[in-house]
Amino acid sequence: MIPDSTNESRAPAPSKAAPTKRARRAFIDLARGFAVLCMIEHHLFDAFMPDSFHGTPLDHFFRFMGGVAAPAFLFLAGTAMVMMMEGGLARGLSARASALLAARRGGWIFLGAYLFRFQEWALAMGASPAWTMLRIDVLNCIGLALILTALIWGIGASLSNSLRLRALLFAVACAGIVLAAPLVWDSEFPGLPQLLFDYLRGSPPRALFPIFPWIAYAFAGALLGLHLAQTRSQPDSASAERNVLALWTAAGTLLWFVILRVDNLPFHLYAHLDWWRTSPAYFLLRCISMLWLLGAAWLVEQAIAPLRARLHWVRPGPLVALGQHSLIIYWVHIEIVYGWLTWPYRGKVSLAHAVLALSVLYAAMIALAYLVGPALDAAKSGWTRARARFATAI
Fold first, then answer.
1. What are 120-130's pLDDT values in tens digits?
2. According to the 3-state scheme, what is the secondary structure of the chain?
3. Which end of the chain is less crowded, N or C, counting CB atoms within 10 A of the terminal residue's CB?
């Protein structure tokens, strides 16, 4: 970690006796890995299946499963980012240093989104219009969400040591985005530059994941991350972690039934509401499904832990590996599925051949996570150590 180099709120570098960084929560990576599978499945069937397949019950099922991916990525990004910043505080970093490190990570993802779009445009060799480089996709949304998550957390942590203040700020930000989304989508914003309009409430093909309401999933995940981060200091952190997940899952399940009951009332808060796009009720139901996903991932990890211990298996499982390296998996599989190499098969593949292709792509992406992922991690760790030595030298 890089110590804070500013004069104000300078935090001492962690001593040798400082608590070491805890290993990644495998159940979070497992949940993200499941979302990666859903993402790949959705993209492959969307690209390769003929028009006659789209609209069938089986297509609806595949699209439903594919719809798990984006909210899961954003929700888990918020959870993991807040846990990382809280961990920085526990290791002696100042609030400002922890927030800046997190915001920098979000900034790199945000810039990477445009690099990715430029690569897609260049590899299309003239077949894709130039405006597609400005399309608002999930990486744009995740990068911006992480920057804003770091900003909100940094403000709260700088003002007070109270966890409740940070939770309140995230709750207000989440509720504000969700409740304002129907109003934003009901407005035209004349005179607003096209790019800003796309970020606020753009529609396909120019924007797939605009700020309203997608960014709120990261803020909702941040609320869970604040609670999970506190389990580090508990004598039995595993039990505390279980209790937190059980509490959130139980509360979410109860809220699920309340939402369905309230949503059927004749009273409506908004004059115009798109249930699948801007409904606060649908947003909450999706967040609850993320809690179920995390709870299931935690149970799976606990169930296989004894087996892994008996087999002395130290490497992450396939889904965990996919979750740990979801960015490179996203980058590569998009080019395979939608790139020019597979254009001859676009919309012309049978269901049996699509299932076979999906199996092959799953295997290839797992292999990529196992082979390329560790190399990228080693390069990133080396770069981090080099920056730390440089910061210490100056």
1. 999 888 888 99
2. CCCCCCCCCCCCCCCCCCCCCCCCCHHHHHHHHHHHHHHHHHHHHHHHCCCCCCCCHHHHHHHHHHCCHHHHHHHHHHHHHHHHHHHHHHCCCCHHHHHHHHHHHHHHHHHHHHHHHHHHHHHCCCCCCHHHHHCECHHHHHHHHHHHHHHHHHHHHHHCCCHHHHHHHHHHHHHHHHHHHHHHHCCCCCCCCHHHHHHHHCCCCCECCCHHHHCHHHHHHHHHHHHHHHHHHCCCHHHHHHHHHHHHHHHHHHHHHHHHHHHCCCCCCCCCCCHHHHCHHHHHHHHHHHHHHHHHHHHHHHHHHHHHHHHCCCCCCHHHHHHHCHHHHHHHHHHHHHCHHHHHHCCCCCHHHHHHHHHHHHHHHHHHHHHHHHHHHHHHHHHHHHHHHHHHHC
3. C
What confidence tens digit (pLDDT) does each residue in 194-222 have? 999 999 999 999 999 999 999 999 999 99
The pLDDT tens digits for 266-317 are: 888 888 889 999 999 999 999 999 999 999 999 999 999 888 888 888 888 9
Report pTM. 0.90
